[in-house]
Structure formats: structure tokens, C-alpha cells
Amino acid sequence: MERLKIGIITQVRVTSTRLPAKVLLTVSGRSYLEHHLDRLARTGLPVIVATTTNFNDDLVVQLCTEDGFPVFRGSEDDVLSRFAGAAREHDLDGIVRVTSDCPLIDPEIVAAGVDRWRAENDPDLYISNCLERTYPRGMDFEIFSAARLYDAEQNATLTADREHVTSYLHQNRSGEMRLLNLPWSGGGSQYRLTLDTPDDWKLLDVLFENFDADQLNCAQLVKILDEHPELATLNAHIEQKKLGE
Q1: Which residues of 164-194 are buried (b: 16+ CB within 10 A; e: fewer)?
Q2: Residue-range definition of the domain harbouring residue 149
Q3: For residue 222, what are the CA distances in angstroms to 125, 139, 193?
Q4: Residue 195 is assigned to a structural domain of this protein
Q5: pLDDT, tens only, 8-36
Q6: What is the CATH number of the domain that holds 118?
Q7: SS3 of the chain
Q8: Using an 8 Å Cβ cutoff, are 29 and 66 in contact?
Q9: What pLDDT, on the 0 to 100 scale, is given for residue 15?
Q10: Chain CA centroid to CA 147, Å
Q11: What pairs with residue 143 in β-bridges?
């Protein structure tokens, strides 16, 4: 059987509301976006950046081009169509969806998810590690077939479904999806290793500068936060934005 072509698509835009241009902030000599892309590249899968046609994102395109990552530009608000365009342009059979505010995403965890999705060999299967929260925020991925992405692109009418890409799939609006959550027993689900607010930035800065976080996996990062509760409190109060906000 022909091996399916699976690629990682990460969404990026610099007009984020809570911390504008957050992925272009730098730490340890590189932007947070580059740390994110470096980690994804370690999976051995193609990594595609899906950004917007907004001129503010020209900087994203420039940075990714210099680092050798392909970029697809599409709608700022209809992120579902942007993902579908990126998948088509790169002729993907399967898509790993991640978001660019995860500079410490663990490539081994993502790769294991892809192995599982391949093994199941079911185009109607949606696999994620965040249907139920067992990982720290910042480790999230979702995997689904291009066929299901194109079906959502064609049939999703709710604004939230267009903006959040996968809600049409994981809410099973088609009635044809099989959902599978891959849980984690390593703890740390209360922690935020994501870059969404100034307080998240404070924590990540400390982890990169003082603990060489770019070299650590999820378990090692959780261990640091377990051993240094004063670090975890830097962003423990942040409320995650709800679907539709």
C-alpha cells in the first residue's frame, strides 16, 4: 500500500490579541516561532506554516523562508479554508494540526500520535491528545485526514467552525467521525507551556534562559515545574480562551 503523506500545519498570525506579535519575540537568540518550528522539524515530517494575507504577516513569511519552511497564505478569519489550502498545495493525505504558540511542543509525542493514526488506517479517525486535558497546555496536537478536512471546508457554516478549524470534526457534526484521545500519565495538566499572555512569556523566558528548555521533553519540563512551584505560579491564574472568544 502506498504510504500516506502526512504533514504538520501550524497556524501563525502576528495580530494576536492578548500578546501581539508574540511568536516573533525572541529568547536564547531565536524567535519563539523558530523554536516551535525547530521542534516540529525533529519529527521528520514536513512542516508547513499557514499564515494570513495580512501585510503584518510579511515578517512571518520572511522568517520562515529564511529558515527553509514553506508558507501558505490564506484568510485571516476563515482559518479552516487556510488549512485546506495549505493541505492541497502540499498534496497531503493526513494533517497534524498544531498552533504556533507552543514553542516547547514535544516532537516525540507528536510523532507517536502520527504512528498511531497511520496504524489505525481509518480516514474517518480524528486523533488528539487534548480531547481530555492530561498534558500541559502547549503540547496539543490533532491528526485527521485531508478528506475530512475538505469535507469540513465544504460543509461547516458556523463562524466558530471556520475560525477554529477542527471543531466541525471533533464535535462530529458530520456524524461520521471516530474520535480517539491519547492520554498522558506524566501529570502536569495544570501547567501552561504556551505563549498567549505576558505572564506566559515570563515563564517561558525563565525556562529557556535558566533551564535550556529547548533541549527538554515534556516529562522533563513537567519535572521542573513540579520542583519549582514558584515558576508555575507565574501564569497559573491565566484563563484559557473559550471556543468562539
Answers
A1: bbbbbbbbebeeebeebebebebebbebbbb
A2: 6-188
A3: 29, 11, 9
A4: no
A5: 999 999 987 778 889 999 999 999 999 99
A6: 3.90.550.10
A7: CCCCCEEEEEECCCCCCCCCCHHHCEECCEEHHHHHHHHHHCCCCCEEEEEECCHHHHHHHHHHHHHCCCEEEECCCCHHHHHHHHHHHCCCCEEEEEECCCCCCCHHHHHHHHHHHHHHCCCCEEEECCCCCCCCECCCCEEEEHHHHHHHHHHCCCHHHHHHCCHHHHCCCCCCCEEEECCCCCCCCCCECCCCCHHHHHHHHHHHHHHCHHHCCHHHHHHHHHHCHHHHCCCCCCCCCCCCC
A8: no
A9: 83
A10: 20
A11: 96, 127
Are 12 and 50 spatial neighbours (Cβ–Cβ below 8 Å)? yes
Give me the number of domains the chain comprises.
Answer: 1
| Structural domain contains residue 212 | no
Beta strands at 30-31 and 6-11: parallel, antiparallel or unpaired: unpaired
pLDDT of residue 121: 92
Is residue 59 included in any domain, yes or no?
yes
- Phi, psi for 167 (deg, rounded to 5): -60, -35
**65 located within any domain:** yes
Q: Which amino acid is at 167?
A: S
Ranges of the chain whose pLDDT falls below 50: 1, 243-245
CA distance 151 to 13: 25
